[in-house]
Amino acid sequence: IMAVGAVMYFHGFSNGGSLLTLGFLLTASGMILWFRNVVAEGTYLGSHTKEVQTGLTIGVALFIVSEIFAFLSIFWAFFHSSLAPAIEIGASWPPFGIEALDPFAIPLLNTILLLSSGAFITYGHHALIQGNRSGAILGTLLTIIFAILFTGLQYFEYLEAGFTIADSVYGSVFFCSTGLHGAHVIVGTLFILVGFIRMINYHLTDSHHQGFE
């Protein structure tokens, strides 16, 4: 519903915005109920046995593999188009008429934020395993802050872009890659935020932290 609503909204259909909002609310409701069940099963009901934890770990690993291939397809499109630009786009990269963003402006800052947030979440993870509760909370909190800053800067980068997703393969690859990555950052931030709240409420400890990993 959300995907159909988004397509209708971007194409100017009158009910597109309403359908998009409905789809978003349904998706958000599903996520909230899923998080509620996972927290209840893992914290209060004792349903996350060793076998269940192994299954969750394998499931996440398979998900990561699928994500690798998803991004690989986008990078394949980028290198295929940039290393040997077709005559239809002016035999140049970026294509004729498109002004690329300055890589040493927002993209560089976002890269620093992304790498820093990765370092902070790794620190928080190791602190949690070692029983350092304050360090785990601090590392996770800084990760959330940096992720929010990253998302905000990504939004401003879109505002500065002088091209759209419809501007040849360059615009398509740019917005598909950064949009997909941005969606992952937003969802990942929500997951980490839930883990942060659980950590504060003593749901996650040095001996019970499957939900954080």
From TrEMBL:
Query: Which Gene Ontology cellular component terms are annotated?
Result: membrane; mitochondrion
Record's bilayer topology term: Multi-pass membrane protein
Q: Please give the superkingdom of this protein's source.
A: Eukaryota
Keywords of this entry: Membrane, Mitochondrion, Translocase, Transmembrane, Transmembrane helix
| GO annotation terms (biological process) | mitochondrial electron transport, cytochrome c to oxygen
Which ranges carry the Heme-copper oxidase subunit III family profile domain? Answer: 1-213
Give the primary localization class.
membrane
Q: Which InterPro entries match?
A: Cyt_c/ubiquinol_Oxase_su3, Cyt_c_oxase_su3_dom, Cyt_c_oxidase-like_su3, Cyt_c_oxidase_su3-like_sf, Cyt_c_oxidase_su3_a-hlx
- Compartments it resides in: Membrane
One Gene Ontology term of the molecular function aspect: cytochrome-c oxidase activity
One family name in Pfam for this protein: COX3
Where are its TM segments located? 17-35, 56-79, 104-123, 135-156, 168-197
Describe the task this protein carries out.
Component of the cytochrome c oxidase, the last enzyme in the mitochondrial electron transport chain which drives oxidative phosphorylation. The respiratory chain contains 3 multisubunit complexes succinate dehydrogenase (complex II, CII), ubiquinol-cytochrome c oxidoreductase (cytochrome b-c1 complex, complex III, CIII) and cytochrome c oxidase (complex IV, CIV), that cooperate to transfer electrons derived from NADH and succinate to molecular oxygen, creating an electrochemical gradient over the inner membrane that drives transmembrane transport and the ATP synthase.
Report the family membership: Belongs to the cytochrome c oxidase subunit 3 family.
Report the protein name in the record: Cytochrome c oxidase subunit 3
Tell me the organism: Turbinellus floccosus
Gene name, please?
cox3
